[in-house]
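thought: fold this chain, then report.
action: predict
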Amino acid sequence: MYLVNSTARFKKYVLLIFTLFNFLYLTAQENSPYSRYGIGDIVPGQNMVNRSMGGISAGYADFFSLNFVNPASLGTVRKAILDLGGEIDRRTLKSNISPEKYTSTNTVISYMQFGVPIASRKMEAKKRTWGLSFGIRPVTRINYKIENNNRLTNIDSLSTTYEGTGGINQASLSTGIKIKDFSFGITGGYSFGSKDYSTRLNFINDTVIYYKSNTEAKTTFGGLFFSAGMMYDIKTKNGILRLGTYANLETKLKAKQSSINETFSFEGNGGIVTIDTVNFQPESKGTVIHPATYAFGFTHIAKNWLYGADFEMTNWDNYRFYGTDDLIKNNWRLKGGVQYHPLKDVASRKYTNLIQYRAGAFFGPDMVKIENNKRNEFGFTFGAGLPLTTQRYDFALLNTGIEFASRGDKQSKSLRESVIRFTIGFSMNATWFQKRKYD
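observation:
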């Protein structure tokens, strides 16, 4: 006989995860100079299961987590799924022309997603399944503060501080349907965010007092976005080969920008006091164009193994901010990953047989183009899916992982950046809307 108190257990898990995520959000300290270009650093867009396998998503579908990159995967949703993710990344910046090194730590929520099956029994009888999901996640992040000190002729020293914050977030609604071996899905939603850039000049001279100057532009933007995807299953001798493709369409975001050029001084607590406003322009309207992304790939699912690969490309040449481009270019990324699940008997009591072991890698050119040399990005990922319960009706999984990524090399004139990310995700697969029965 099975009597499962899923509601109490669900509340316990959600309270634990949200407490952790609130702590992560409040301790953000990121400082990445590469987020200065375009609309910021790209946040890995996959859930923690996919990220531990190099980021493969085009042909991936699973009963216990939500692949929100390719909405066609929602055709496999059988039960309600709550999927949450967060990360801690440690960034190290190294200069190729000096021994200087800077390290920062950043902790944030990666996504919050909820999925539910909506197919009727008649549809299921015809081998047609239908799923729906909604959630919110960051797409890019802008967070940097750079100080440059140099000496000017006849003036003495100049200290310049470049600072920026912002990024893009997305609230999405997705649906996917599976008809026998073919799946397709669409995603729609709202992209919103901000971009706040400032440049502060501080002249340092022993005999002449110069006013400090600040040039700052604050932009907010938002607009609808759409994406679509397809999958097709091919039966093989020892499993299923799943082909997949998806496209994130180009998005035009309506923007409002206010800019100011002023002289200022610092308060005793470090705050800024305006002395004189040289120029101020409120709410200048414009457009931010976020370019399209296309990808295709596959996964092969056997009894204990899953492996796959993706190829993804983004048209960053089409990026525009108020009609101007930036030092970014088209780029592509090749991803590959594998998962091993040793469980052979569903009645196994050995916990190590229940763990899902994952690994992967990715490689491609950097989207930032600030010198003539080719700059590449690459990384390796490892992770594990740790079951928190083995109940028949409800299943909770803790997805942990670690990612090692790098951009730039010793031949680059600019900074090299290496990142270590510790990822944690929680997914709960539950029959919340099904009537309990005795077995």
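thought: worth noting. The CA atoms of residues 33 and 144 lie 5 Å apart.
final: tokens above.
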